[in-house]
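Hi F.,

I've been meaning to write this up properly since the lab meeting, where we talked about keeping a consistent format for the predictions we share between groups. The idea is simple: the sequence comes first, exactly as it goes in, then the structure tokens exactly as they come out, then a line or two of notes. No screenshots and no reformatting. I'm using this chain as the first example so we have something concrete to point to.
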Amino acid sequence: MAAIVPLDDLEAMQALEDAMDVKAARESLRDAEENGGTMDAEAFFESLDKEASDR
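Output, unedited:
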């Protein structure tokens, strides 16, 4: 699907989307800090492997 919109409208929509992404990222970081922090991808995949081998 395609639509033709004025450039100003497109830029406004992109700015709104960016602001929503920033808000979601901040909420995710706050949630992670409240629930034990984050882990890097390597640690995450190791935890999945350990969980799978424990079954």
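Notes:
The radius of gyration is 19 Å.
The chain has a mean pLDDT of 95.

If this format works for you, I'll send the rest the same way.

G.
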